[in-house]
Amino acid sequence: MNPLLSLLQPYPFERLRQLFDGVTPNPAYKPISLGIGEPKHATPTFIQQALCDAINRTPSGLAAYPATAGEPSLRQAFANWLKKRYDLAVNPFTQTLPVNGSREALFSLTQTLIDPGDSAVTGDKPIVVCPNPFYQIYEGAALLAGGEPYYVASDPARNFAPDWDSVPESVWARTQQLFVCSPGNPTGAMMPLGEWQKLFDLSDRFGFVIACDECYSEIYFRDEPPLGGMQAASKLGRHDFKNLISLTSLSKRSNLPGLRSGFVAGDAAIISQFLLYRTYHGCAMSPVVQSASIAAWGDEAHVVANRALYRTKFAEVTPLLASVMNVALPDAGFYLWADVAGDELAFTRDLYANYNVIVLPGSFLAREAHGSNPGTGRIRMALVADTAECVEAAHRIRKFVQSRRR
C-alpha cells in the first residue's frame, strides 16, 4: 500500500461520530444538524429537466466516451459566465476545463503540480501552504502528492484573514502550491485586492502556484460580490493569470451537490498539463451532466433567488445567537463561525445530548501549528436547512448557552 495513506487524518465527521459515541440525544427534541455543509435548498426544476432531456434524447451521448476536455459548448458556457460574473475575457479552450466538482479538482490539481524531487533522500519535502482552519482536502492532497502542509492561521482581529506575513521566507522558498479559499470555509471571509497583490508578488518571487477555491462565491451578504482570484489578477494587469488556477462548482451556487460538476480556469500552461493528468486519471464528465451544467451556468435568476433565501435565513438566525455568544454575520458562505468561550468539544457534545442539535467543533477543521489550534473554542454552524429549522436550532442553542451560565 501507498505509505503516504498513513499520514491522512480522520475526516471531521468521523471525529464527530467518535465524539458522540455513547451519547443519547434528548428524545424530546427532533434532531437538527448544522454539522455538514451540504446544500438543502431545492434543485431548480429547469436544471433537472435539462438532465432528463439529455438522457431521453436520441442519441443521448451515453453510448460514447466523453472527452476529458468536455464539449466546446460547455467550455464556452464557463467563459460566458466568467465574463458576466467577473468581466473576464478568457479562451474557453485553453483557459478552462470541466471537473467533477471542486473537491475532486482540488485534489487532482495538487497531484499534477507537486514535484517531490529527491525529497525522499534529502528530507526537504515541497511545501503546500494552506489557511488554518481549512478544508481537509487541501491537507490530504498535499500529503498524497509527497508534499508537506504548512498552516497559516486566520486572524480574528483581521476579519479572519490568514496571516501571510507570518510565513518565513525559508518556507516560501520551498513552497510549490498555495491554497486560498475566498470566501473562506469556515469563516466566510473574503480576500481583498491588497491581499491578492501580496500573494501574486510572492508567487512571482518564489514560483509557486496559487489554487483559489471559490465554491462559496455566489452566497454573499454584502451588495458587492466577492472578488475572484482571476478578477483580482485582471485588475492588477495580470491578464495571463500566471501561476493562478481558480476552482468553482455548481454545488452551492445552484444547489447541485449530487451532480458533481464544476470547472477550473486560469493559467493556460497549467490547464494544459492538468488536462494531460486528467486524461490518464479518467475524469471525463458525463455528457448528460454536461448538458445540465450548461443550463445551470447560463442562468442567474435561480442564483439570485438562492442567495435571497440565505440572506433571509442569516438575518433571522444571526441576531438570535449573537445575543448569547460571540458570532457575527460573515462576508459570505453559509456558515456561522462562533466563539463558545470555552471547550468546543464539551459544548458540541452537551448541546447534542441536551437539545439534539449537531454542530461541528472548530478544532476539527484546523490543526495545531505554531503553538495553537485556531479552531479551539469555536464551532461551525452550517445554515443549510430551511429557515424554520435553522431558527429552531438557534432557539435551542440560546437555551443551551443560557443554561450553562446559570
UniProtKB/TrEMBL annotation:
UniProt GO molecular function: pyridoxal phosphate binding; succinyldiaminopimelate transaminase activity
GO biological process: one example: lysine biosynthetic process via diaminopimelate
Transferase in keyword set: yes
Domain of life: Bacteria
Cofactor: pyridoxal 5'-phosphate
Residues covered by the Aminotransferase class I/classII large domain: 31-397
CDD domains per record: AAT_like (cd00609)
Keyword terms of this UniProt record: Aminotransferase, Transferase
Name recorded for this polypeptide: Aminotransferase class I and II family protein
